[in-house]
């Protein structure tokens, strides 16, 4: 599916489950993981009727492109991006003097935090 991405790690998957579960296509859980965090997420997935499967660690490594995945990943649908006019209209509605920060290719969350401060 070309309009989807993979997210990984407990916090990312839990946040997606709580904020927009309808965007989750499938969740991949590492085989052999049966700790409390996995049990909690599995219960949420069953409750929300979201497709999930047990997967080998190497599949999760591939989905996470070598990043730390904590034994969980999800395929999610990307939301549609606003066009330039929609974005400008939205910014104008925020306040008289909105601060717009445009960033590209942020890879380290600490760098994003520094920009926001």
UniProtKB/TrEMBL annotation:
It comes from marine metagenome. Pfam families: SpoU_sub_bind. One of its GO terms (biological process) is RNA processing. SUPFAM superfamilies: L30e-like. SMART domains: SpoU_sub_bind (SM00967). Residues 6-82 form the RNA 2-O ribose methyltransferase substrate binding domain. GO terms for molecular function: RNA methyltransferase activity. GO terms for cellular component: cytosol. This is RNA 2-O ribose methyltransferase substrate binding domain-containing protein.
